Amino acid sequence: MKEFYRQTVKEVLDHVESSEAGLTSEQADHSREKCGWNELTEGKKKSISQIFFEQYKDFLVLILIAAALISGILGDVESAAVIVIVITINAILGTIQTVKAEQSLQSLKKLSGPEAKVLRDGTTVQLPARELVVGDIILLEAGDMIPADGRLIENASLKVDESALTGESLAVEKDLETLSAEVPLGDRTNMVFSGSFVTYGRGKAVITDTGMQTEVGKIAGLLKSTSEKQTPLQVNLEEFGKKLSILILIFCGILFAISVFRGEKIGSAFMFAVALAVAAIPEALSSIVTIVLSFGTQKMAREHAIIRKLQAVEGLGSVSIICSDKTGTLTQNKMTVEDYYVAGKRIPVSELDLDDPAQRFLMDYSILCNDSTNENGVEIGDPTETALIHLASQHGLAAASIRNLYPREGELPFDSDRKMMSTLHRIDGENRMIVKGAVDRLLELTEQIWTHDGIREITEADKIKIQQQNQSFSMEGLRVLAFTYREIPEKHTLSMDDENHLIFLGLIAMMDPPREESKAAVAECIKAGIRPVMITGDHKITAAAIAKRIGILQDLSEACEGADIENMSDAELRDFVPKISVYARVSPEHKIRIVRAWQEKGMIVAMTGDGVNDAPALKQADIGVAMGITGTEVAKDAAAMVLTDDNFATIVKAVENGRNLYQNIKYAIRFLLSGNFGAILAVLCASIGGLPVPFAPVHLLFINLLTDSLPAIALGMEPHSSEVMNEKPRSADKSILTKDFLGKIGLEGFVIGAMTMLSFLTGYHMNGALLGSTFAFGTLCLARLFHGFNCKSDHPVIFTKRFFNNKWLQGAFVLSAVLITSVLTVPEFHRVFKVETLNLMQLGCVYLYAFASLLIIQLLKWIRMKFR
Fold it and tell me: Does 645 qualify as catalytic in the annotation?
């Protein structure tokens, strides 16, 4: 079957079993039985319990659950309780954040659905859009939202804004002509589509598709088949957790075997191995990452963003490509006058002088030959006409007062065949007809030209100059209207025959301009090593002009149309995408293919957009970013992040926040792993040396619960720095655990382990194993607390302002130090924590060993910097 746009009105009506008089209620019910309700089917949402239990899927968490079960079976309730508490806190935090994000997004949704005027049972009725069926005849006029896809059967200068669906910023002029060839969605001028709205004129259409069968519905279907991507941090932590857990389990198994071989009871040896595993495996890591990212989302919320998926902040910080929609994202989605051309001169709007008669005439005539209105700041009408009214108001001219001064006495409405509109007014005691329209068309009808020296006959040279200026405007992506006029006899009824013998007055050029912040945001992206790419449904010339203005495009050869990639294989497209910065006239399928092509080249891709047509690509991208104000609900639901102020610059802020958060998470990981490595080294050293085990299981659990978590969370709250924007994005497959990073962890862990063993030996030689164990426990706890300051930077910080710039870290240090000092000095704690109560000199010795680890690591950082 031919597409509806390639069928005549009669063929379409016959196919949907309808007529121009509409359906009866009985026919509508029968049609609904076949086609269903006119609504998009929503995927089943996860319950809170499902979200909660999903938090336990992590490999590290599963290992810890197993350890908790074994600990409980063997009677070590303390160990089991600590493990369960830690992983439960993590699950609760993840659940709360996910549910809160969904609720925040719901608050953005509109409360009421659209209604439509329909011919039913021979009369015009207003019905909820949900009740419409295939075959219904809908009546359309300016301001109406189109409720379903349909074929036009009547048209009176109808213009429709389809930007949400196609990405094209200008309203589309509709007609009834049957199209013979296959054309893209944006060029099907005899069709109207669900989700778009009428900006001008009137019309009637027969509904051809409803619900999931509409173009919007097809896009919703694409969303279901598009898989979501894990962020780089998710992938890294998952791989890292598995590898680390396996290594630690192997080490603990070896230690268990050594202990049994040395004659220890199997139960005791096993409990210590479990305790060491709990201490060595950074199970707090997931919680800490969740908490740090949660604080990041709160910061973003204050900066006008809603994070729907917790890892989106970090993920956006690691992107190397931002594929951005044009309309409403990089541009204002509002036509704005850019230039006048009058009296032979091009005049930017910033230089308009209304004391000049030519410029004042052109402005007055652009208000009079205009059907739009501006009442109480609300602009209603075609975007090109509201742009003219808006310009006048910026210069202190009220459209209503000018129209009252020169009331309209006749009109010839715009239609797409004539490409012009005319209005009749009484001006300066004369009947004057003002005609505006397409430049080429009006020049054919023009005989004279207005100049400062008076009206004279227009020459061929004048016309060539006007056409050259029109061409220049067009190459800059500007839309151009020509204005002409002529005198009309009194008591004369206007007809189309009067639209000749015209006097040329001037041209007005306008466009949907870039957002003020877009150029700076694009420059910031490029500086940060991120490549911005524009993907739009608009025309190539318009898209290229905007892209040049904001710095995305350098040369026109970097721009292409969707048709250029239509027949490319995926392999060809992968080779093609690095050469292109602007894609115009693209379909939703093209957007997904472009995003996927970049991903297959190893790039981390963000996609920004606001239209229904952006939604599948938003979901396919590593990070989807939707606009909250102008964005459609489909786009918001598909995105990982919603900008509530529709400000492109907020995305750059998110990149900066994301990079800082990733850096802070690395600080926390470094803190946890180097401290854990120090503990493992101390145990290993004691085992090899035939010495008593330096720690009791309760010591390791105390370290795990208190002296690990608080400083690690505090490190995740390190103040952000703009310096991260001078770095290049990390590659998608780059692990957190690079050789350099592991080297630093190993060296710092060695220093902490060495100081802990020195402290153990000091206590052991003073008064036996219990004091040695107490010294080792105290030194390891305090050394790890001091180590929090080491992890703030790769550079020495001990004598700099940065040492004191994190109040959270200072608070965590003081609180944890008070706790460990109390355990070491209050006699009531010695039985619970299996320690010997220390006197002041012994406590000073423990603090000295711990502080020495800070000084040594700071010295090693200084040496590393000096001889790099």
Answer: no
Report whether pLDDT(101) > 50.
no
Contact present, 437 and 482 (Cβ < 8 Å): yes
Sheet of 305-307, strand order: 305-307, 641-643, 623-627, 605-609, 321-324, 531-535, 582-584, 559-561
* Residue in the block written with tokens 């019905």: 127
Instruction: Decide: helix, strand or coil at residue 197.
Output: strand
Higher pLDDT, 85 or 134: 134
What's the DSSP call for residue 331? B
- Between helix 648-688 and helix 709-716 the angle, nearest 10°, is 150
762 three-class SS: helix
The CA-based angle 289-756-706, given to 5 degrees, is 35
The residues that bridge with 340 in the sheet, in sequence order, are 347, 508
- What is the band of 449 on the pLDDT scale with cuts at 50, 70, 90? very high
Rg from Cα positions in the chain: 36
pLDDT the model gives residue 464: 95
Burial of 630 (0-12, 13-18, 19+ CB in 10 A): middle
Structure tokens at 749: 């862990």
Q: Which amino acid is at 246?
A: I
Write down the residue that tokens 């060539």 correspond to. Answer: 464
Widest CA span in the chain: 120
Judge residue 574's burial from the number of C-beta atoms within 10 Å of its C-beta, 0-12 exposed, 13-18 middle, 19 or more buried: middle
**Which long-range contacts link 493-501 to residues 24+ away (Cβ below 8 Å)?**
493/410, 494/410, 494/411, 494/412, 494/422, 494/424, 494/433, 495/412, 496/412, 496/418, 498/412, 498/422, 498/433, 499/412, 499/418, 499/420, 499/422, 499/433, 499/435, 499/445, 500/445, 500/447, 501/445, 501/447
**Distance (Å, whole) CA 369 – CA 402:** 11
- End-to-end Cα distance, the chain: 72
Rounded-to-integer distance, Cα 98 and Cα 679, Å: 35
* Predicted local confidence at residue 286, as pLDDT: 67
Residue found by looking up tokens 């905007």 in the block = 546
* DSSP SS3 for 378: strand
Q: Are 733 and 602 in contact (CB under 8 A)?
A: yes
Catalytic choice (149, 325, 462, 708): 325
